[in-house]
Amino acid sequence: MTEEERITDAPEGAESGSGNGAGAGSRERADSEPDRPYGAGTQVQEGPPGSYLTYAGYLKIDELLSLQQPVSDGPEHDEMLFIIIHQVYELWFKEVLHEVDYVVKLLRADDLARAQHTLKRILTILKVLVAQLDILETMTPVEFLTFRERLEEASGFQSHQFRELEFVLGAKSQWAISRYPEHEPALKRLRQRYEEPTLWDAFLHCLTGEGYPVPRELLERDVTQRIEPSPELQEVLVNVYRRDPALSELCERLVDLDEGLQEWRYRHVKMVERTIGTKPGSGGSAGADYLRKTLFKPAFPDLWGIRARL
Predict the structure, then answer these.
(1) Which segments of the chain have a pLDDT < 50?
(2) Which of 27, 30, 54 is nearest to 42 (CA)?
C-alpha cells in the first residue's frame, strides 16, 4: 500500500502524524457522546431511548440478592451461609444438567471431541461442588442447631434437580418420583427424565456409530430401569481400550464423571455425620444412614468391570 493509499484509508478524523493513532476527530466524537450511568454497557434495543444493559440488570442482581431469607429469630448468623451454599448448589445442578443434556446430544451426533470437552467442564464443576462442602463444614454442630428446627420439613433430600441428575445418569426410581406431590412443577420434570434415555444410552449409540457391535438388547433396553452390568458389552469395551485411543479417552471421562459424583456423595455423608451425627435428617429422611446406602454404587458398572482385564 502506498503512502497516499494509507492516508486515504485512515479513519475519518485520524491524523497521520499522531503517535497514538487518535486524531482530533476521534476526540470530538468522544466528547460529544452522552454520559452513561456508571456500569452501563450496550444500549438496550427495546426500551426507552438512552437505556443501557447493565451488569446488575443482565444478571438480575437485585432479585438474586433478595432470595436469601432466613427464617430463624434474629436471624441466626450462620443461617445465611447455609442458605447461600444450598442455593449455589442448585445453580450448579442446573448447569450440570444443562451440560449433560448437551453431551447426550453430541454423542448422538458422534461429535466425540466436543463431548469430551463438555465432560471436562462438568468434571470441573463437580470439583467445585465438593470444595463447597469445605465451606459448609466451617459451621459447627452447635451453630447449625441454632436454626435447624426452623427448617421444619425442608431437606436437601427434596432437591428435584439432584434427582434429575441421578435419573439422567441412570439411577432411576419410581419411589423418588412418588415423594413429590402432584401439584409440584418438579414432578413433571422428573417424570420426563424418567422416560428419557440416559447419558449411558447415548454412549451406547455412539459406540454403534463408531462401528462397535453393541448387543441389540442394550440398544433397545427399557430406559426406565437401572443400568446393569453386561459381560457382552464389557468384551466390546475391552476391545475399545486396546484399539481406539480416542474412544477410550471418552470412556475415561465417563469414569471420571462417575468417580466425581461418588466422591461428592462420600463427602456429603461425612459432612452430615460431622454436623448431626446419627440424628435423623430433616424432612423425614434417615440422615447419614440413608446417605451411606447411596455410596459405592457406580453409574456405569461396565466401565469399572473391565479394569482388571486391561
Answers:
(1) 2-30, 32-33
(2) 54
Spell out the SS3 assignment of 124-185: HHHHHHHHHHHHHCCCCHHHHHCCHHHHCCCCHHHCHHHHHHHHHCCCCCHHHHHCCCCCCH
Same domain, 244 and 302: yes
217, three cell numbers: 438388547
Q: Is residue 141 part of a domain?
A: yes
The string of DSSP codes covering 56-68 is HHHHTHHHHHT--
Domain count, the chain: 2
Instruction: Give the containing element (helix H, strand E) for 88.
Output: helix 79-108
Q: Output the pLDDT for position 13.
A: 43
Asked which of 18, 39, 64 is the last residue of a domain, the reply is 64
CB 17 within 8 A of CB 10: no
Residue pair 158/186 in contact (Cβ under 8 Å)? The answer is no
Number of residues that this document lists for the chain: 310
Supply the range of the domain harboring residue 299: 78-309
Q: How far apart are CA 287 and CA 278, in angstroms?
A: 7
> How high is the pLDDT of residue 276?
74
- The three three-digit cell numbers of residue 93, written as one number: 445442578
| Residue 61, φ and ψ in degrees, nearest 5 | -60, -45
Please tell me what DSSP assigns to residue 53.
Answer: E
Same domain, 13 and 57: yes
Same domain, 172 and 27: no
On whether both 49 and 102 belong to a single domain, the answer is: no
- The answer on 144 and 111 residing in a single domain is yes
User: Do residue 54 and residue 101 come from a single domain?
Assistant: no
Q: Is the peptide bond before 75 cis (omega within 30 degrees of 0)?
A: yes
What beta strand segments (E) does the chain contain?
Answer: 40-43, 52-54
Asked whether residue 114 is domain-assigned, the answer is yes
Chain segment 24-69, per-residue pLDDT in tens: 444 444 454 455 555 555 555 555 666 789 999 999 999 999 999 9
Q: How many CB atoms lie within 10 A of CB 168?
A: 23
